Amino acid sequence: MPDKIALDSRNTGLTTPTRRTVLFSGLGLAAAPLLSLTPTPVFAHHGWNSFDTRHAYFAAGTVSSVRWGNPHSAVRLSVENTSLPADWHQRELPPGADERDGRETMASARPYGGEHKELDLVLAGPEWMARWGLNRPLEVGEKIETVGFLATADDHDLRPVMFWLADGQGVWQQLTSFPQRPEPVDD
Question: What is the 3-state secondary structure (H, E, C) of 110-165?
Fold first, then answer.
């Protein structure tokens, strides 16, 4: 039998590679919309499951890079200070904050003590940032303070629950519930 012809699996006749290619190509195109329905890790868009929400960390510093866009914005923070501000426990929550989650996160906050001099902040996309009061991209050189949770797989990634700009404006960042409640710091 020639190399270019093979029996199909139902043994109903001969099928050429060209016909097979056309059939599989058509199936690939038909299946393409289904691929977008394939489950993917949810932390990338909404959930907190890839972050240790038991312990919140505080860091302040200068924005050293910004990628502002969807599905999430990414900001690199050069860590300059990890000491909680003196007024930390009296600080107002950002507008739109969930009172319980916000207060529990602040009570759980401890100075970031990791080895990284820069942290990658996972922020919401521009539309959500605007809903939470930030109608512009963060800028390289801008000073911010943040409190959030470290990723379980990479302690270089911090997902803020809230952050504050140099002018004191707070920005809330939580859309879904935490998988574990933040634990207060033992004093």
Answer: EECCCCCCEEEEEEECHHHHHHCCCCCCCCCCCEEEEEEEEECCCCCEEEEEEEEE
Residues 157-174: tens digit of each pLDDT: 999 999 999 999 999 999
pLDDT tens digits, 36-93: 333 333 334 456 787 889 999 999 999 999 999 999 999 999 999 999 999 999 999 9
Q: Pairing state of beta strands 118-124 and 157-165?
A: parallel
110 and 57 Cβ atoms separated by less than 8 Å: yes
Report the alpha-carbon distance of residue 187 to residue 184 in Å, rounded. Answer: 9
φ/ψ of residue 35, rounded to 5: -60, -30
Q: Is 23 helix (H, G, I), strand (E, B) or coil?
A: helix
CA distance 31 to 53: 37
What is the pTM for the complete model shown? 0.74
Residues ≥6 apart with Cβ < 8 Å to 79: 59, 60, 61, 112, 116, 117, 118, 119
Q: Which amino acid is at 180?
A: Q
